[in-house]
Design brief:
Blueprint lengths: L2 E7 L6 H14 L4 E4 L2 E2 L3 E3 L2 E3 L1 H10 L5 H4 L2 E2 L6 H8 L6 H13 L3 E5 L14 H8 L2 E7 L4 H14 L3 E8 L7 H13 L4 E5 L7 H8 L4
Parallel strand pairs: 1-7, 1-8, 2-7, 3-6, 8-9, 9-10
Antiparallel strand pairs: 4-5
Helix pairs in contact: 1-2, 7-8
Amino acid sequence: MAHAILITGTDTGVGKTTVACALAFASFARKLRTGVFKPAETGCIQGPDGLLASDALILKTAASSPLPLELICPYRFAAPTAPAAAAVLSGAPPLDIARLVDCFEEIAGASDVVIVESAGGLAVPLTWDTNFADLAQTLELEVVLVVPNRLGSLNAAVLSLEYAAHKGLWVCGYILNDAEPADSPAAATNADSLARLTDVPCLGTVKHRQPLPLELVERILKGPC
């Protein structure tokens, strides 16, 4: 059975794609059959052959996945908003959760490791009845939360972790990511503050525009936390 990991975040623009791609590349480099899955991508630009899911394409490239992009990212929308809202704005029918499950199972069946990337955080709705936390529960995904190391991250991180616990999710831990280059009192103290505020382990920290530390990669890819 594939080791399936959901890379989610406290918000958009926190480094989820960077982390997911680094893990996918590291998994492939270890000669593991590496699958990637982006259930829905929004904010897609129009290309010659339709909407371009750039994050999904980067994930596919990082993993050297032979699977088609239509399987890796079955839903694409132009509006840069939550998938449920994007479907409404585009006039498309609601996302079919059963289709997402089928896509994931096909990817997992051909993989040793599957890296799944959410759009936004756990509470972002795929449909008005199902969010990414619900999907993670259905697919039995191990959750890794990416937390930006900046002012305002404590509240979002604690609430995200508490919501994951409320949903009964399997949380491996969180990554503190220097999403911004500037130093600040918040960036200097967030690691210690989070250690005091939650029992969920910090898997590691990532410096601005630096690769993921090897020990962090090994800790996530070694198997269930």
